[in-house]
Design goal:
With 364 residues, the protein is an alpha+beta fold. The protein folds into 3 domains: 195 residues, Porin chaperone SurA, peptide-binding domain (Triger factor/SurA peptide-binding fold); 44 residues, no CATH class; 103 residues, Chitinase A, domain 3. It contains 12 helices and 7 strands. The strands form 2 sheets. A 4-stranded antiparallel beta sheet has the order 4-3-6-5. Strands 2-1-7 form a 3-stranded antiparallel beta sheet. Helix 1 crosses helix 12.
């Protein structure tokens, strides 16, 4: 997926590069040298782990590929080489970062530590302690971390000055042409993919699916789950059904659905949100739930619905009819998507040029 992969790589490039823990330095090995700058095996392993997390979140189906492991390893190595080349180029060009820019960069990072794991706000000293604890876990001193942030900001400025300025913005005709392809793809017309290679086809398919979900009939649904395992004995399943029936009686008696979801639901993710599953389109939910939910009148709680996960009580809060996909509605989104894709291509070309004159040694 050229566009998606390029944007993912771009996001990873903008992240701060984690250093190897200090305690691992004695046993560490060199993974690659870029113009005689050594990149250690521990850094490579961290980059690989970060990529795995990013791909799992953005493209979980990627790991079904037979060569997924090899692709991740190559991508991690390429990422480290590219970062080293960009940093070296920024140093050669003597790109400067002021103390104010560095302080702002540090503040941006520290914001991530302003809340605890439950989302509650931390006091200034508590947030500062959380930040320093993270540095300690990474084996970094504050000055080492500031140096890394300075390098990151240098690279960001280099990219803005040398790549962003020469990135072409998509023209109206290009936007309309891509919109026409999306419209065909949403309808399932294979003519949309004429002349495209496999990766471009995957990109268009992914974008078309997003727009299809945006314009399809949607409902906002809540549920209360009374869970059991598929292999559970009948007695346990009957207990779950009895709980669901009792909860339905409470609802019929005037109890609040959201309160009961928070009190009873075994779906630990949606329970704190009153059982809210958000907006869904057909195909997103198990068939048994989908059929019942799309037929439910607004605000009415269903009888228990059986799925392989357990028994569900459902309530639909909103319904939105299917909409026609209009160019003016999505023009800004398309402009941003294609502009980012153009930027990613320019960055890839710039890095390709840097590699031509670089001495890169990979150690297996």
């Amino acid at each position: 997926m050229k566009i998606i992969n390029s944007l993912l790589a771009l996001a990873l490039l903008s992240a701060a590069v984690a250093a190897a823990p200090a305690g691992a330095a004695v046993m560490d090995e060199v993974a690659v040298k870029v113009n005689n700058e050594a990149i250690m095996r521990s850094e490579y392993n961290k980059a690989k782990d970060l990529l795995i997390e990013q791909y799992r979140a953005a493209m979980p189906d990627f790991f079904k590929a037979k060569d997924a492991k090899e692709q991740i390893e190559k991508a991690a190595l390429d990422k480290l080489v590219d970062e080293a080349l960009l940093k070296q180029t920024a140093e050669t060009l003597k790109i400067k970062i002021s103390n104010r820019e560095l302080d702002n960069g540090m503040a941006e990072i520290k914001k991530r530590f302003s809340r605890n794991e439950t989302g509650a706000a931390l006091s200034g000293p508590a947030a500062d302690n959380a930040f320093r604890d993270e540095l300690k876990k990474e084996g970094l001193t504050l000055e080492q971390f500031r140096s890394k942030i300075r390098n990151q900001l240098m690279v960001r400025k280099l990219i803005e000055d040398t790549v962003r300025t020469r990135t072409a913005l998509p023209k109206e005709a290009e936007l309309k042409g891509y919109f026409e392809k999306i419209t065909l793809a949403v309808k399932g017309d294979t003519a949309a993919f004429t002349g495209m290679d496999e990766e471009s086809t995957q990109d268009l398919t992914a974008v078309a699916q997003r727009f299809k979900e945006f314009t399809a009939e949607r409902i906002r649904v809540r549920h209360i789950l009374f869970k059991f395992e598929e292999t559970a004995p009948l007695m346990e399943k009957n207990k779950a059904l009895k709980k669901a029936e009792d909860a339905k009686k409470e609802l019929d008696g005037g109890a609040d659905f959201e309160d009961l979801a928070a009190k009873y639901s075994d779906d630990k993710e949606s329970a704190p949100k009153g059982g809210d599953l958000g907006y869904v389109v057909k195909g997103m939910l198990p068939k048994e739930i989908e059929e019942k939910a799309f037929a439910l009148p607004l605000g009415e709680a269903s009888n228990p619905v059986l799925t392989r996960f357990g028994y569900h009580l459902l309530r639909v809060d909103e319904k939105r009819i299917a909409q026609k996909l209009e160019f003016d509605q999505v023009k800004d989104d398309l402009e941003q998507l294609l502009a980012q894709a153009n930027f990613a291509k320019e960055l890839a070309n710039y890095l390709k040029d840097l590699r031509k004159d670089a001495k890169i040694q990979v150690f297996k």
